[in-house]
Specification:
single chain, Non-ribosomal Peptide Synthetase Peptidyl Carrier Protein, Chain A, about 80 residues, about 55% helix, 3 helices
Length: about 80
Amino acid sequence: MQDMLKKLEKVLTKVTGRKISVQEGQDFKRDLAVDSLSMVELVLETEIEFGVTFDQSELTEENLATTSTFMRLLEKKV
């Protein structure tokens, strides 16, 4: 899980253009200031970084709400 968090940190830093320290349970919007366009970029860059593909049906508000919910979705794919 820690390796995945570090990779997610790398992706978020690339997407937002600023150094981000990722911890479990952080809210993407409130805690990390990730807007909707950045979330789209996050999903695309995560697919590239981890070599996975997300189905549209998986990209729900619930799954994209926090780092923990996104990591659970990602864990199912890797």
